[in-house]
Every structure is written in C-alpha cells, then in structure tokens.
User: Which sequence fits this backbone?
C-alpha cells in the first residue's frame, strides 16, 4: 500500500490555507488552493478555514463613474465644435445686450476674452452674419447689427405673415400635450413679468413663438423665422431698455394657446398676426414714436 503524505503551508490568519499533496511516486508537488473544487485525496487533512472572529480583508468599494452634466465642457465639446461654442457665447452676449447694437467686434479682443484662438472667432462671425446678428464690412471688420425703425417695420410685417401661417399649421397638428407645453411657457412669461425679470420674460416669449413655429413642421420656415426674430430682438431690446418697460401681452398669448388647443386654425393664425402687429406698435410706443398707423391688410381666404 502506497503511502501518501501531506505538508501544510501556513499563511497569516486572514489568508487561505494552502495544502501541498506529495506522493512518493510523483515527479513533483501538486499545489491546490483551499477554494479549489478538485476532490480531496484520501487521507489528506481537511482544509482549515479562518476562525469566525478572524478579521477579513475589506474589498474596495466599486464606485460607478459619475456622468457629467449637459453643461459640462466635455459634453458641450462632444455635441458642438469649438467654433459652435464660440458662436453661442457671442450670440448670448449680443442678445443679452452685453454687446451693444452697432458695436465693433475685434477678433483679438473677443478671442482673448473667450480664451481661444482667432480662427474660431472668425468662423463664428461668419455664422452670426448668416443668422442676422453680425454685419461684416470689408477692410473694417465685424459689427453687431443695428436695426433702425424702418427696417424693423419691414421685418415685423414679414414676421406677422409667417406667424399667421405657423399658427394655422400648429392648430391643425398640435396634440393636447403640445398645447400644454405652450400653456406652461405662457405661465413662465406671467411669472417673469410679475417679478419684473426682463431676461426671463424674453426667454419664455421667444421659446413660446419658436415652439409654435416648430409645430408647423416646416424646417425652412423655422430657419427664416429665427433669423427675423434675431434681427427684431436687437431692435426691441434697445427700445425696451431705453423705455424701461416690458411688452405685456399676456391676454394675447393666452388666446393664441386656446385657439391652437381647440384646433381653430383660422382663429389661431389671425391671433398670431394681430399679436405681431401689436408688438410692432408697442415697440414704437416704448421708443417714444407714439402711435403707429396700422398697415392695411387683405382678408385671408
């Protein structure tokens, strides 16, 4: 009968006990872990486990990576090019009035202010010219667009026609949920007006009209409309800033929403047209121009 012997290697208490099985006829040792699922050889000592009171090593907690927010620089760079980010920031400063209408925009100064090279700034100027916010002059540079009263009147007339078309289309296609979104934007306007918060009011107002245009479902209309709104925003913010008042027209906004929600296409279009022309008159009054005679308009068929 062949004899088998076992030698144990003792490790510190918190470690597993390893057992080496040796056989006189084997050519080497076989190392088995105590956690191995291999069958224990006959006559080998039982595997010892640490006592219940023996402290066990703690496993490092696995911390899941934290997702970055939508406004994190990494997220923004993934979604936009550097030129796009520069363009958005310059646009924000123009619409906020930080860069006044008619002001010259120098590449070196804007690049230093934003901490970028002049290349993205130059490309952003070109894009902002297409959106109607910047004017590029050969051998002179870039300037913030300045809209005078006559040009603003022309823009208001075109916008009123587009508003009417968008209102009709939105009333034909808007779902109850989309009508509720418009009501929420009107509520935001009312709250902002109550606080005297000009910026919040304008943001909600722009979002309200932009959403109606989106509901019309015509991308070409959306592009043209947004350019006109940018140009009018330059004129309106200057006039309203001088007069220190807000174009309070909450009754008109509420009526527009109700017509859209009720799918009253003709009434929604008419309400939006009249709202645009009323906005034109309010801008004239805020600038001290007095009452402006309404333009004649043929009845829509």
Assistant:
């Amino acid at each position: 009968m062949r004899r088998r012997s076992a030698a144990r290697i003792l490790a510190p208490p918190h470690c597993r006990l390893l057992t080496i099985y040796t056989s006189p006829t084997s050519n080497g040792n076989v190392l088995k872990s105590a956690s191995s699922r291999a069958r224990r050889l006959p006559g080998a000592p039982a595997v010892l486990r640490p006592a219940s009171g023996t402290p066990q090593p703690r496993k490092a907690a696995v911390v899941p990576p934290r997702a970055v927010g939508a406004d994190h620089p990494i997220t923004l760079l993934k979604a936009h090019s550097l030129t796009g980010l520069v363009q958005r920031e310059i646009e924000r400063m123009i619409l906020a009035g930080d860069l006044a209408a008619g002001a010259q925009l120098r590449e070196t100064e804007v690049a230093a202010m934003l901490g970028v090279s002049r290349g993205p700034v130059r490309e952003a100027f070109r894009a902002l010219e297409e959106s109607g916010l910047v004017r590029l002059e050969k051998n002179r540079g870039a300037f913030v667009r300045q809209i005078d009263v006559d040009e603003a009147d022309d823009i208001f007339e075109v916008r009123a026609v587009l508003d009417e078309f968008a209102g009709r289309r939105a009333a034909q296609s808007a779902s109850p949920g989309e009508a509720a979104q418009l009501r929420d934007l009107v509520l935001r306007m009312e709250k902002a007006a109550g606080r005297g918060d000009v910026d919040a009011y304008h943001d909600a107002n722009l979002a309200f009209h932009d959403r109606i245009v989106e509901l019309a479902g015509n991308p070409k209309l959306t592009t043209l409309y947004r350019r006109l709104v940018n140009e009018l925003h330059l004129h309106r913010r200057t006039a309203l800033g001088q007069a220190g008042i807000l174009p309070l027209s909450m009754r008109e906004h509420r009526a527009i929403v109700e017509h859209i929600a009720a799918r009253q296409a003709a009434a929604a279009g008419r309400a939006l047209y009249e709202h645009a022309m009323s906005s034109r008159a309010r801008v004239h009054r805020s600038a001290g121009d007095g009452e402006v005679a309404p333009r004649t308009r043929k009845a829509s068929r």
User: Anything to note?
Assistant: Strands lie at 5-9, 18-22, 30-32, 104-105, 134-137, 141-144. The chain has a mean pLDDT of 77. The first strand starts at residue 5 and ends at 9.
